[in-house]
Every structure is written in structure tokens, then in C-alpha cells.
UniProtKB/TrEMBL annotation:
This is biotin--[biotin carboxyl-carrier protein] ligase. PROSITE patterns: BPL_LPL_CATALYTIC. InterPro entries: aa-tRNA-synth_II/BPL/LPL, Biotin_CoA_COase_ligase, BPL_C, BPL_LPL_catalytic, Transcriptional_repressor_C. It catalyses: biotin + L-lysyl-[protein] + ATP = N(6)-biotinyl-L-lysyl-[protein] + AMP + diphosphate + H(+). SUPFAM superfamilies: C-terminal domain of transcriptional repressors (SSF50037), Class II aaRS and biotin synthetases (SSF55681). Pfam families: BPL_C, BPL_LplA_LipB.
Length: 247
């Protein structure tokens, strides 16, 4: 264990109120001050952002953190790290919260008993760095109607721990999974993710920028794209979109 309380070799920078921890981490990278597995964690964010330009509500008490990751592979493989993190977070929260069912929802959401409790946002920081931002609703979820999906907090499931406790549990799981990805590539991550996934084999609605698709969520391809089986129209690979399961 490091002096900061996280498992070795994670580093920790704890900040008060920031705009976005992803921006703080990117700034470190552009200042030449990045280090592999350095975590930037903030008490709250005034301009937290989610995927596809959405706002991410970031009150004090929830976890808002970004991990700097040295990318020793082509940038095209960076999306795979979102799946590494989702598996690690599903396992970490499963370690913490008993009697709850954590599921990964494509591409980078985490559901607890069907409600969104966490999301991830990957951004390139230039010069070989990747920023993995993740937010976990520890004590508070956005009010109904303000989120795209039904949302909940860990407190709603009776968990009384805090944001540093979630970060610690995440790092314990993420370190070994990232090492596995670095050594063996995407296949074991893909398999683990599918084992934790919501909705494989089920009817899915996929909202893209300009169209909405329906079909059976048939799995993930070797890059992490969602495979949608559209029956007579064949299989369609989806790289970015929002998935809903009507069933
Ligand atoms: O579900 C999503 O759309 C992704 C949400 C990602 C939120 C985290 S909180 C820490 C980091 N800083 C940000 O501004 N966003 C990510």
C-alpha cells in the first residue's frame, strides 16, 4: 500500500472544488507532470461532464476522480480501457455492497439493480496519456427526470461508506485488471465484461446521433463495439450511442 492509502503503485492528488477532474488530469499531462496511475480526486465538480457532452452532477460526498494512464498502445485501442474500468468497478462495488446486483451497461455505465450508479468518460490527454474519469453516486443520485436513465446512489442500497472507500476498492480491482490488459490484450477483458453485462441476448434500443436502431444485443466485437443483431438486416457494429433495454 502507498502512503496515500491506495494500493501501490497508485498515486493520489486530492483537490477541493474543481471544474472537472478530467481537465485537472489533462493539465497535468500537458505540463509534463503526469504519472502512470496518478488519481486526481475532487470533493466536488462545478462543471463535471459526461459522455456526449452531457452534464454530470457532482455534489460533495459522491466520487469524482480521474486516473492518468500511460498509453503504450495505439490510441485506437484506448476505448478498451473503459471496459477494463467497468469490470473493475463492478467487482469493487460488488465487494462493498452486499445483496445488490451490479451490471456493466454498454459502453461505460454501471447499474445497480437496474439503476445507473456510475459512469465513465475516457479522454486522450495527448502525448501518450489517457484520462479515465469516473463518477460514482455514493450518497446522492440526480433527481428523476434529470438523468437519461433511472439513477440511484449506493446509499439508496443501504451502503454507508464514503467516496475514498469506493476509490480504494476500485484501485484494488483496477490495478490487476489493467496489468492483465497490458499483458494479454482485450480478449480476457471482453470475456469478463460480458460476464458482468446487462442485456446480452436481449432486445435493445440503441440511440445514435441521427437514428435509433433496434435488435438483439449479441455481444461485443474485438474492439469493444456493440454488436446488434437486426435479424434479416444482419449484424450491425455500433461504436457510440446510448442503449436501452425495453424488456
Ligand atoms: O456517464 C457518463 O456520461 C460519464 C460520467 C463521467 C463523470 C466523471 S466524474 C469525474 C470525471 N470528471 C468529469 O468531468 N467527468 C468524469
Amino acid at each position: 500500500m502507498s502512503k496515500n492509502g491506495l494500493p501501490s503503485p497508485f498515486g493520489l492528488m486530492r483537490l477541493g472544488v474543481v471544474g472537472s477532474t478530467n481537465d485537472e488530469a489533462r493539465r497535468l499531462a500537458s505540463d509534463g507532470a503526469a504519472a502512470d496511475l496518478l488519481v486526481v480526486m475532487a470533493e466536488s465538480q462545478s462543471a463535471g461532464r459526461g459522455r456526449r457532452g452531457r452534464q454530470w452532477q457532482s455534489p460533495a460526498g459522491n466520487l469524482h476522480a480521474s486516473v492518468l494512464i500511460r498509453l503504450d498502445r495505439p490510441l485506437s485501442q484506448s476505448a478498451q480501457i473503459g471496459f477494463v474500468a467497468a469490470v473493475a468497478l463492478a467487482e469493487a462495488l460488488g465487494d462493498l455492497v452486499s445483496d445488490a446486483d451490479f451490471r456493466c451497461k454498454w459502453p461505460n455505465d454501471l447499474l445497480c439493480n437496474g439503476k445507473k450508479v456510475a459512469g465513465m468518460l475516457l479522454e486522450a490527454a495527448g502525448d501518450g496519456w489517457l484520462v479515465l474519469g469516473f463518477g460514482v453516486n455514493v450518497v446522492q443520485a440526480p433527481p428523476p427526470g434529470e438523468a437519461l436513465y433511472a439513477a440511484a446512489s449506493l446509499a439508496d442500497f443501504g451502503w454507508g461508506g464514503d467516496a475514498p472507500g469506493v476509490l480504494n476498492a476500485f484501485c484494488h480491482r483496477f490495478g490487476p485488471w489493467l496489468a492483465r490488459w497490458r499483458q494479454d490484450g482485450f480478449p480476457p477483458i471482453r470475456e469478463a465484461w460480458l460476464g458482468h453485462a446487462r442485456g446480452v441476448g436481449e432486445q435493445a434500443v440503441v440511440r445514435l446521433e441521427t437514428e435509433t436502431l433496434t435488435g438483439i444485443f449479441a455481444g461485443l466485437d474485438e474492439d469493444g463495439a456493440l454488436i446488434l443483431d437486426q435479424g434479416e438486416q444482419g449484424l450491425r457494429r455500433v461504436m457510440a450511442g446510448d442503449v436501452f433495454f425495453p424488456g
